[in-house]
Q: What sequence folds into this?
């Protein structure tokens, strides 16, 4: 009996100590919050204002798993993600019941079904497309669907490896993004499009200028099929970038060709490209050095400048034309960009393609 009394006494004491410590911590946080000037919410609402940050962090979790409807989220909603997860895990890509998508919204794309669809043995194979037939090493592209640019560093080593191996299995190409070509891009043996950003990562000399020797080194990889000059990105057209020195490891420095201990700056455009003639000259130069097809990637703001671009190609001759053009929609993603650029600048892909195709 005495032992039980002793245990209860200690439990009561522990309870009082915990409550006391909590009250003391609350009082301390109250004075800290009232004295600090960095956070107006905490200053005006001491202690309880601290929960705002917690609830903000948890809000995304609760919206995604408890409150958001299957078709509400952007850019990929829960129904789309679940479909991909099931297909990727080998559980099949079929669903039951009818569509949960609202098909009555004007502008909703609908595929027209055939009255008498072809049988399984009557489907035509997708014809390969030859890109850059006039180059020394044309590329015969077997697929219409490919992997767009995502730099190593923006995505991890396992991600690059997985994409490279998956692209090889699917028979599609993979774009390196502007961060240069890493060994992990090459591991899978897939076709690769090397992207040249404004900082010339991976193909730059010590001064940051385009290096013909580095271009030849990259082109020597049999996996590298084409080169893409990045003019602008859909998520942040007209905006450059910065890779902080703290994030530049020895491996990243070697891949991108930048020094350790200094921020790596990407200008908002190529310094040597002031007009369309400069762009066509750069395309021709890279094509001559590498012997492989060369094109460019851009986000569309208006069709008017591009009408002048195609007119200039006609004046200079078809041989000056790029081998391909990549249109990036304003809804595209990025590692980091100001929200006004993401939300308000650049045409969505659906609008941009219509304007360019009609030129």
A:
């Amino acid at each position: 009996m005495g032992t039980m009394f002793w245990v209860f006494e200690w439990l009561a004491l522990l309870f009082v100590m915990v409550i006391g410590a909590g009250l003391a911590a609350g009082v301390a946080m109250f004075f800290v919050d009232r004295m600090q000037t960095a956070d107006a919410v905490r200053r005006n609402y001491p202690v309880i204002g601290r929960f705002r940050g917690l609830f903000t962090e948890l809000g995304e979790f609760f919206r995604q798993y408890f409150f958001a409807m299957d078709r509400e989220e952007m850019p990929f909603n829960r129904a789309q993600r679940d479909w991909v997860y099931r297909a990727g895990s080998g559980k099949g890509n079929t669903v039951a019941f009818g569509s949960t998508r609202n098909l009555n919204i004007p502008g909703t794309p609908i595929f027209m079904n055939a009255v008498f669809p072809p049988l399984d043995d009557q489907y035509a194979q997708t014809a390969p497309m030859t890109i850059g037939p006039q180059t020394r090493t044309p590329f015969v592209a077997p697929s219409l669907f490919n992997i767009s640019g995502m730099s190593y560093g923006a995505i991890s080593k396992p991600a690059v490896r997985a994409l490279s191996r998956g692209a090889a299995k699917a028979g599609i190409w993979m774009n390196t993004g502007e961060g240069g070509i890493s060994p992990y891009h090459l591991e899978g043996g897939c076709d690769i499009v090397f992207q040249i950003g404004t900082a010339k990562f991976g193909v730059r000399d010590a001064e940051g200028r385009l290096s013909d020797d580095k271009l030849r080194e990259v082109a020597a990889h049999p996996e590298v099929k084409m080169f893409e000059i990045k003019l602008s990105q859909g998520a942040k057209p007209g905006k450059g970038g910065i890779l902080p020195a703290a994030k530049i490891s020895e491996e990243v420095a070697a891949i991108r060709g930048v020094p350790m201990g200094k921020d790596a700056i990407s200008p908002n455009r190529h310094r040597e490209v002031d007009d369309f003639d400069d762009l066509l000259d750069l395309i021709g130069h890279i094509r001559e050095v590498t012997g492989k097809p060369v094109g460019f990637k851009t986000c569309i703001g208006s069709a008017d400048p591009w009408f002048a671009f195609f007119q200039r190609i006609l004046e200079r001759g078809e041989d000056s034309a790029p081998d391909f053009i990549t249109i990036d929609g304003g809804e595209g993603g990025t590692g980091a960009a100001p929200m006004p650029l993401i939300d308000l600048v650049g045409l969505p892909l659906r609008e941009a393609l219509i304007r360019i195709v009609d030129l």
Observations:
- The mean pLDDT is 89.
- The longest helix spans residues 2-35.
- The chain has two domains: 2-88, 131-357.
